[in-house]
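User: Design a sequence. Structure:
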């Protein structure tokens, strides 16, 4: 059985040492591996390494990533921690999500992963689904859509979260989140996140 995070409380401030996240993963690694899940316990920093993009001074990148088995909104940053864009990641429609491995602990895991990654603005591993993405010259809209079941052709789609994309200075940022709970919203705004 996976351990719960008893010290993760917003009213006391979001406090999590990366060592605690590593320890959680290590404590539960055997459980996860038994189910065939590969676990990487280091926080993933979303850094653009393409020197051509950085050398050209491109700072308004939008990356769409699919079949990641979870929803993400990430800031893209250069090696110098300069914001140069946004990444929108969709879960899969039918593959297992983290709930298959973590069960009721998936919500805690989602919050902790968001907190441990300075570039992660939103992370949700609870749902299967897809992204409804629209983009114009002025702005963009990202709707993270969940599906009620993957075991039937009859299903209902529902909005898990949504974000508006807009230009700020020379880059693209995610704004106006909808569907986030209090803890997710605090982390989206940068409260309590680890600093790189």
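Assistant: Done.
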């Amino acid at each position: 059985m996976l351990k719960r995070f008893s010290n993760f409380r917003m009213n006391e401030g979001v406090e999590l040492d990366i060592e605690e996240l590593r320890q959680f993963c290590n404590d539960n690694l055997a459980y996860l591996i038994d189910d065939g899940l590969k676990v990487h316990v280091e926080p993933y920093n979303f850094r653009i390494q393409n020197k051509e993009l950085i050398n050209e001074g491109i700072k308004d990148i939008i990356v769409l990533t699919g079949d990641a088995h979870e929803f993400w909104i990430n800031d893209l940053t250069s090696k110098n921690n300069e914001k140069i864009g946004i990444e929108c990641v969709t879960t899969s429609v039918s593959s297992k999500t983290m709930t298959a491995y973590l069960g009721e602990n998936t919500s805690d895991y989602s919050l902790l992963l968001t907190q441990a990654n300075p570039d992660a603005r939103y992370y949700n591993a609870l749902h299967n689904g897809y992204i409804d993405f629209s983009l114009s010259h002025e702005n963009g809209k990202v709707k993270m859509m969940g599906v009620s079941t993957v075991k039937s052709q009859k299903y209902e789609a529902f909005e898990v979260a949504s974000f508006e994309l807009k230009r700020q200075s020379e880059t693209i940022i995610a704004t106006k989140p909808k569907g986030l709970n209090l803890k997710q919203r605090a982390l989206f705004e940068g409260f309590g996140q680890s600093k790189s």
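The chain has one domain: 14-188. Confidence is low (pLDDT under 50) at residues 1-16, 28-48.
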